[in-house]
């Protein structure tokens, strides 16, 4: 508390009042979610905040305080104006900005003119719903949605000049709108499309189509282009750059007008199909309640008892985030737009015998780092989600020839480095999640591990003959050299990180090959997985980049960023999830390794376990729980014979990230639910250091923050009903495991098998204030 300024004290107090108020009621998980967490941070990303949205919804409808850029955009708690309500807050995509106004028409003058002040007083944001009042216009706005349809309810004042704007010229999200067209269909329906400009991560222009329907016939239409109202031979259609359309009403005091906006990335006709299939009526409250119910069904797959009010709020907000950031891009009939080739093609996902799509198709950022977050959580609690994403990646492989790191706008983004999909697929397959073409999946992953595959490209390297990934050097020399000639692409200088991640991904492929009985491949990739040792410098005790000739790069500093991806050697030197015993041996044995690792945590504790920046060197950067590369480090003590230190540091990190005000929560890059998923795993006391990719997966145990956790298992994948963790003497002081009982038997291992998990079970943990250094060291 002493580190908070006055404003943060007030916000914390208000957040606690919110928690106390809802705690007194019969709480559901949806009631405990606080969407405002971390929205006051300057690093909030465009896709971060989604209020009126279903799980993985195509529509992500919410207020936008700022609409330009990846960072510092979308919903920003401290901004005092709302510029629009837009329907797409996806990774590298945005569009369909709508705004109600009253009074003199100013839609053609742009958002900076027609924006409105608002207040947090009376504002409500919950999973599936948002309510806010536009002060400048006297309009109350309520928002909800289905998966593909945004549903607006506007309560207008009495006015002869009430408008609803469709601003096709707005810069919404990551890039400009280069072309838009909108037209009147009839007295209640509007249709149109917008072309999102290509950007570095999504180099091709990409369309979004919409079909809108109003509950009341409008009186007239106003169109504009290039900041001027257009009066032409076709006043009910407008097209071009910086163009838009508005509908006009005369409204009575407190008159409600409802608006439904469906989107599609395929066509206007498909958008209309989405609307009429998902939302054929005008019952706003019904859709809102259905959204709450759907979110509760998803969030209730993990039930918790005990803990503080704040811990429960943070837990369900974290779980909510893990189901948000990655977006559905296929229509109700399974159609989606493929942009991997030289021209757009409409594709369709696999259908059931009844003609129903078996899985959605998705837009998503890279899986980079997801081995310590989403891979574990989804495979435990939401296996059907892993199945769906595996299907998406196999479809993309068939369409474009590569399994992606991340895909946006129907095309490869080549974001980040390596092939993190290898761990995703290995975890899915080795936990029995296999409702996709597993043969094609393995074929694509194997291709990615050689020249011509995804590992040959560094971040955003779209050119025809890529080389930034250095995979040919890795195969030939056993590491990626730092000074490779003629390299381009973002992160192409992250040679040491590439070497380490390729080694782990080789191991993941080996585990997949072993389960598939591809023994030659297993042996080959297992041998390659030891390449991480080629960058171990015994003199410095760190992973260190090498040049083309095998010499250590000069002027090495473990806190320097050169050679590493959004991190440094101090953190990446612990990135050997697949061979921790080998890493410990390189460090001189368990005792020396524990001392080294513990010292790093003690240094970084003063700075909140958060790297000050992944762009500059800083003495604080000994650990990093603000970004992916270091988020497994606290669990390494389990493997080094000191599980009590995993228990201690995991609890410390949870406390550090427990702030539930708009200025707390994640501190850095939440990255489409990855940090939320990590928070869930830490809270329930389960983890998988190897990401769960092993041919025989295990779960590592640490100290949960709740009295009881019930994980309801999906009967379509796992035979058991529930896996239950129950703790005794749990408190903020009693953080150390004294003893454990698994399914009625004394348990002195820090891990248990996935077989125990999937069959359902009961883990009893007794906690105390002092470490039991004998538990968990068998």
UniProtKB/TrEMBL annotation:
Keywords: Calcium, Hydrolase. Residues 270-768 form the Glycosyl hydrolase family domain. InterPro entries: 6-hairpin_glycosidase_sf, GH-type_carb-bd, GH92_a_mannosidase_put, GH92_N, Glyco_hydro_92, PNGase. The keyword DNA-binding does not apply. The keyword Calcium applies. GO terms for biological process: carbohydrate metabolic process; glycoprotein catabolic process. Pfam families: Glyco_hydro_92, Glyco_hydro_92N. Residues 32-264 form the Glycosyl hydrolase family 92 N-terminal domain. One of its GO terms (cellular component) is cytosol. It comes from the Bacteria. One of its GO terms (molecular function) is peptide-N4-(N-acetyl-beta-glucosaminyl)asparagine amidase activity. Gene3D superfamilies: 2.70.98.10, alpha-1,2-mannosidase, alpha-1,2-mannosidases domains, GH92 mannosidase domain. Its cofactor is Ca(2+). Monomer. This is Glycoside hydrolase family 92 protein. It comes from Maribellus comscasis.
